[in-house]
Amino acid sequence: MTVIEIRDLTHKFSLGKSEVVAIRGVNLQVFRGEFVSLVGPSGSGKSTLLSLIGGLCRPVHGELIVSGHSLIPMDENRLAIFRRKHIGFVFQSFNLLPNLTALENVALPLLFSGVTAGERTNKAQKMLEMVGIAHRLNHKPAELSSGEQQRVAIARALINEPAVVLADEPTGNLDSKTGSEIMDLLTRVNREKGGTFLLVTHDREIARYANRIIYLRDGSIEKIEGEPRIPREGQSIA
After folding, report:
1. Residue 131 CB: number of other CB atoms within 10 A?
2. For position 215, what pLDDT does the model report?
3. Is the pLDDT of residue 234 over 70?
4. How far apart are CA 98 and CA 203, in angstroms?
5. Which of the 8 DSSP states describes residue 69?
6. Averaged over 170-180, what is the pLDDT?
7. Which of the two residues, 235 and 73, has the higher pLDDT score?
8. Helix crossing, 146-158 with 102-111: angle to 10°?
9. Does the pLDDT value for residue 71 go beyond 80?
10. Which of 1, 98, 166, 207 could form a disulfide with 37 if both were Cys (CB 3.0 to 4.6 A apart)?
């Protein structure tokens, strides 16, 4: 099953008086349960492509279908609902709310989905257990190490059981050992839960955790390493 379908996608933005083409006619299919890395030099378009897939910015041309939904005709309200239901985001800077505990940060997305307080707490506890940080659930971000904060951020990204998880340099603020631990966690969750993961990284070693590596340069796909992981009909990814 195709989860992400990109056809002739183009995105531009203004830089002073100049117009910069960030994405140039990209075509790509990503299948359910894949773990895909986007790699390229600074300015290659990898983070822009991730933002387009997540509905955070709009292309100027092309077709973009994510989890069965065409993003092009959606207005901002529909895009916000789409992101809440179908996309989980993991950022380099964690983006945790400093005044909330780990448990409260993880539970927060459920607040906007009409989930009761008791169920929010229960689900958040289970997610923190899954990422190996349940013993720190009452601690605020400033009381957590960088690796612990990223685990909380991953738990938050997964709380709504999204079809697609988008991770932008998730190991960028971590030392190599902690970064490897985070990648082990992400690949385990991908394997066990069957969601589709797209990871932006400049680190070739981190990129190799994926089943496919997509190299971008100047807004275009330069080459692809690895084979698509396409499930047979009725087959579980896990």
Report:
1. 23
2. 96
3. no
4. 29
5. E
6. 93
7. 73
8. 20
9. yes
10. 207
Within a domain: residue 232? no
Kindly state whether residue 69 falls inside one of the protein's structural domains. yes
User: CA-to-CA distance for 66 and 3, rounded, in angstroms?
Assistant: 6
| Listed range (46-50, 71-75, 111-115) with the worst mean pLDDT | 111-115
Report the number of distinct structural domains present in the chain: 1
* Burial degree of 234 (CB within 10 A; 0-12, 13-18, 19+): exposed
Tokens of 222: 């330069």
Sequence-distant (6+) residues with CB within 8 A of 160 are 84, 85, 88, 109, 110, 113
Nearest to 183 by CA among 194, 172, 193: 172
Please report, for the domain that includes residue 34, its CATH number.
3.40.50.300
CB neighbours (10 Å) of residue 180? 15
pLDDT of residue 46: 94
Residue with tokens 């006619």: 25
Considering only CA atoms, which of 183, 184, 182, 189 is closest in space to residue 164? 189
User: For residue 160, is it within any domain?
Assistant: yes
